[in-house]
Amino acid sequence: MNLFKSFSIALLSSLLLFFTSCEVDQETLNETTREQQDIPKDIIQKLEKAGFHTHEGLSKVEDGYVVEYDIFLTEEEIYELANQNIENNSKHYRTNNLVSGTRTIRVYVDPALGSFVRSATDQALQRYNAQNLRLTFSRTTNASSNDIRIMAASNTALDGSFASAGFPKNGRPHNLIRMNTSFYGGSNRLGNTVTVIAHEIGHCIGFRHTDYANRAFSGCPGGGNEGQGEYGAIHIPGTPTTFAVANSWMLACIGREVNRPFIASDRTALQRLYARTPPPVSPVPFYRFYNSSRVNHYYSTSRSTPGGYRYEGVQCKIYNQQVPGTVPLYRFYNSSAVNHFYQQSRSTPAGYRYEGVAGYVFRSGGNGRIPLYRYYNSSAVNHFYTTNRSEGNNAAGYTYEGVAGYVLR
Fold first, then answer.
1. pTM recorded for the entire structure
2. Which of 219, 269, 309, 406 is the most exposed place for a label (fewest CB within 10 A)?
3. Residue 189: closest CA among 259, 108, 262
4. Which residue from 398, 371, 396 is spatially nearest to 386, judged by alpha carbons?
5. Dist. CA 263–CA 254, nearest whole Å
6. Residue 194 and residue 162: Cα distance in Å, rounded?
7. What DSSP state is assigned to residue 323?
């Protein structure tokens, strides 16, 4: 997502040996640092919580923010991503939102970008279509009826980046890719054009960077982790557990003449998310943690123990993707009372803030399903969830409040 900035000629000649995969203009970086001083602290904090790198490549645009040089997010999307808590510690990553259904995605190219970019777009779409996914890509000349628009943008508007895009929403791909006319269009013929377009389409359908854990892997100046390992990026099962593999099309940075067709693990990631026949979804552990000093129970599909909490084992199994018969189990948090609350209703209780979907549970009982009971201690202001009715009934000070949902052992 922080794809690609441009070195000045002087810097390029002196630093070529050190940064062969990512091109950055130092003057632009300095300007970016100055721009970030005007960005609200809560926006920066939420971006970091959602797993984004904010020390460079963050700028305010008219209707939102661009982060990591090439990802556009509205303020609403930033808040949504910050409230997700999903484990990720491996190579290929996706966002919490994907493109739904089997569909044809029509891609429009701004005529101002010229024939070379149109040809490169056709090649990028061919790369995706060769994977036989449930998403089919085609280029359209209809400027008013399309799913993704690839539009010309100035170097200033893109803060020196090669291109930018956003994430899917409501089951549809992000509808805009902006390409820098300082690099693309006119007589420009960069060797990375096909890969840049394929990369940005990757973001539009829900992919994060493969070198999420260490952007230095692809030569990004400053390197670093793009954020907390448990927020905003979900590991794609079946892909390598090393943090990055050379030549992936979703590496964070790239050189001007670098071309990255899909490698084996890229194809695995694409098939895992968008195969015509999706692989079966398996339940995952729902871990329980407890903060004794604050008297608060916390439950998550992530095994990572939050600060101040102790691990209390696997409470049950739920799903981290929706399957037939399941409904979301929403998580809320009351910071003044230090209490996490889980329920099937999206309606936020008074005094709480919404923290996203903790997982998916069954609405009713059935074969292999067991109740997840909810208890409440009004003195400690603590909700307690357990599949063991005896444990709940014997917990001093707790009152039974019913079944939060049905889960698996």
1. 0.55
2. 309
3. 259
4. 371
5. 16
6. 12
7. -
CATH classification of 9-274 is 3.40.390.10, yes or no? Answer: yes
Paired tokens of 125: 């779409």
Q: What is the pLDDT of residues 269-328, one digit of tens each?
A: 999 899 988 677 899 999 999 999 999 999 999 998 988 999 999 999 999 888 889 999
Per this entry, what is the length of the chain? Answer: 409
Ranges for all domains in the chain classified under CATH 3.40.390.10: 9-274
Number of H helices, E strands in the chain: 8, 19
Measured distance CA(47)–CA(66) in Å, rounded: 11
User: CA torsion, points 239, 244, 245, 246, in degrees to nearest 10?
Assistant: 150
Cβ burial 101-138 (10 Å sphere, 16+ → b, else e): eeeebbbbbbeebbebbeebbbebbebbeeeebebebe
- Give residue 223's identity as a one-letter amino acid code: G
Give 196-246 pLDDT, tens digit per residue. Answer: 999 999 999 988 888 766 667 777 766 554 543 333 456 677 676 555 567
Neighbours of 142 (CB within 10 A): 8
> Residue 13: exposed, middle, or buried by beta-carbon count in 10 A (0-12, 13-18, 19+)?
exposed
Pairing of strands 148-153, 103-109: parallel
Is the pLDDT at 257 greater than 60? The verdict is yes
